[in-house]
Amino acid sequence: MIDVLVPQEQEGTQAVVRAWLRSVGDRVEENDPLVELETDKVAVEVPAPAAGILSEILLDNNAEAVPGAILGRIAPLAQSLGNEDHASVPSEPSSSPALRADEGSSIGLAAIQFREMRLSPSVKRACLQHNVDPAEVEGTGRDGRITRADVDRFVQAAARPAAQPKPIDQPDASIASHSVPHDRMRLRIAENMLNSVTQAPHVTAVFEADFSAIIAHRDRHKSEFARRGVKLTYTAYLVAAAAEAMKVAPAINSRWHEDRLELFDSINIGVGTALGNKGLIVPVLREVQKLSLEGVAAGLDALVEKARAEKLSSADVKGGTFTISNHGVSGSLFATPIIINQPQSAILGVGKLEKRVVVREIGGVDTIQIRPMAYVSLTIDHRVVDGHQTNAWLSRFVELLESWPLD
Predict the structure, then answer these.
(1) Per-residue DSSP letters for 289-318?
(2) Which of 91, 187, 343, 344 has minimal Cβ neighbours within 10 Å of its Cβ?
(3) Under the phi-then-psi rule, with left for phi > 0, alpha for psi from -120 to 50, and beta for the rest, what region is 115?
(4) What is the pTM of this model?
(5) Catalytic positions
(6) pLDDT given for residue 275 in this prediction
């Protein structure tokens, strides 16, 4: 048998089996997509390591998948040619006491069902352990297959008392409501956010930036960029300016360790990308300090398209040293604190761009101007930097935006 293994490297705090793309008994070719894993940051497909018959699934849907664990097994094609019937439904010893269909035995009924249904080994063991007839369990897996989680829910529901005491915080019965179960990504986001504010003392500084200069530059050059197949967005300017601002406060691009501060030479900037109701993911543009504005824009466009198509690889979301949250695209003026993407030391927030009345000195005279303005904030880990470095970084960042050359 050939083992199908969970990849040794994964991006995210925990991986689970999201869905099997093939069933036991299916023939697969080498590198065919076999099973999909999901972490809090990315979903990845594990390919078949060889051609053959998928003979066994050891980790079913929603099972935790630690690096190196065996997901399932494939019978090599040559070995399985004469055993297709056995590959389709793994046989069980007829003499096994657990599978003997004694009259009136609930275990015996389960054994009969095992011969008629495709059940993974873990599901079979759970059914036998709890005397569950699989025909009574509603399957939520691929093509209606029963997962281990389905069996566990069935057992819990059977053991639950008929009447539950009303919790103290239960809403009044007259209030209409309904429940929406948390999906895996939302649970992982919640876990990461809580861990971040628990670990790091968050402090936020807010500045205001005039976008007139970059609007003028974009208006002049966006058609030229488009002819070369590059979409020039405001976010590209933010990323480029953020990388340049690191020169005045390098500790913003760092990581805290208990015995030292790790300063990064590479500036790898993650950009928060909303996936609608599915949550948020942060693809990373690497080595930004080496890129031109056009290079930044092209890289961002490719990453955002992959994120929205759910095609990001683990390499696309790992290795970030700084993050930008452009929350203003959804309408907010500013948000505080924007929670730091651990183990980074800071995160930039950019609010809604809108025309505001400001006072500007022109020729020594104060004048009232209407300018396109946005609030920009830097939330820092106060263990790493203080107000001086925070404000120095923001001052330089705003200066770069407001003095962007037209050509």
Answers:
(1) GG--HHHHHHHHHHHHHHHHTT---GGGGS
(2) 91
(3) alpha
(4) 0.63
(5) 382, 386
(6) 77
